Amino acid sequence: MGWKKLTVIVVAAAALVGGALSLSMYLTRQQEVEMEVADQKPQPPQAGDTTTLADMENMPIYYDDDEVLLLPVRNVVEGLGGSVSWDREKKATEISFYGKKLVLNRGSREAELNGYEITLDREVEAINGCLYVSSDVFSEYFATEVIWDSSQQLVTIKTGDNTKPVIAGRMLEGVDGERNYSAEIPVVVGLNDISYEKSLNDAFESFALEQLASFPNVVPAEEAEEAAEEAEAVKQSGEEQAEAQAEEGTAAEAEANTETEANAEQAEAAEETADMPKPDHVRLGFVKGYIGAEFLSFYWEVDVDGKLSSQGVNVDLQGQKYVNILDLTASRDIETELHVYAEDVDPENYYISADKEWILLSNDEENGTYQAVSVPAEMAQSVWKDKYKFLIA
């Protein structure tokens, strides 16, 4: 079997734990970690095989057909100065690196990042006794840049700016008879204010669940049971209150009747909603935009039976507030000015791309589509408030 070399660049502060790396990976005086890449895919261990990690050579693996680079978790993390441990309670592998903790489950896409449930793009693989993950795990969650040179079979990993938050995703999928849904929910990790971080993630989840409201099995059973108990408690409280009001006399009785009528109207409206046609499929995803320590931007894409719509989300992380176009600009008539680029301008519906482009999102409900229109940087420079001009390329 032939072997080719690749180089992994490690930050100057990275420390190599003695003996942590096998002979296939070592730290040089230039603080580079060299690894050898197998030309052929190692075969996964068969049932009954016994493997010892100390005896294994753990090399990066590149799958040409899928164009996916897999990296050995322990070798790379410890080579970059992080740590890898086994969580006995969760029966999972925990990575601690760059201020984040990632919990991996062998053979699964389900993981945890700083305590939040997330879904990886690819299952964690166990090959020859070593855990492997896609290189995207390091580039997206740990502020590293992974570069693959297919011509020379070389991979380079560079550590980047860890002050920026990251956006992971959590998948929800299910069926209701012949109907089905899938939703990828953004999960923000790395804000200085953990409480605000949680409130944002709760809001994103709530939006997703609203889109999936026609599917009865979206909410986990435990949460559904808790909600049912709360509803029952509210019902009992209402009955007790009604009895007390009835004892107070005619005026109180009239007020109770009014409230009862209002509740009846709400119940009737709920029944009408329940009788409305339900979609056969709902798909919900999001497109990442600009992500920085000061600002966060992305947009939702909702597909209901093939009809698409979009909704931008733009958050001033320093001010801890959502920002619409009117907040972003100093022009008093910005909507009219933007009609040159988009026929329908919704002040709430835009996003800032990763390349710092100002993108207007316009939904066409009649045709079930939406448009994403870029606004020239010169236009943005002329109308944006100074505090947000750092978002313009």
TrEMBL record:
Q: What SUPFAM superfamilies does this protein's entry cite?
A: Copper amine oxidase, domain N (SSF55383)
| Coiled coil ranges | none
Biased composition range(s): Low complexity = 247-267
**Region named Disordered:** 220-276
Pfam families, A to Z: Cu_amine_oxidN1
Instruction: Point to the regions of Acidic residues compositional bias.
Output: 222-231
Q: Could you name the domain of life of the organism this protein comes from?
A: Bacteria
Q: Which InterPro entries does the record match to this protein?
A: Cu_amine_oxidase-like_N, Mao_N_sf
Domain named Copper amine oxidase-like N-terminal is located at 55-157
Cite the Gene3D superfamilies for this sequence.
Copper amine oxidase-like, N-terminal domain
This protein is called Copper amine oxidase-like N-terminal domain-containing protein
Phylogenetic placement of the source organism: Bacteria, Bacillati, Bacillota, Clostridia, Lachnospirales
